[in-house]
Amino acid sequence: MEFLLECIGFSPEVDLDALVQLARERGERAPWRGPQGEHLRLALGEGLEVRADRESDGEPWSVHPYFQSDQRLRVAVETVRQTGESHYDALLVGWANPPLAGHPSLDPSAYPLSAIVTDARRLPRSLARGHVLALSLAGFALDVERVGSRESVAARRGPARRFEDGGWVQPLGGPDDPGGCVELALCIERVEERANALTGSRVTLLHTRAPQRPLVLFASPWQLEVDELAAPRAGDWIRGVFLLTGRIAGGLRTAVERAGTAFG
Question: What pLDDT score was predicted for residue 142?
Answer without folding.
Answer: 96
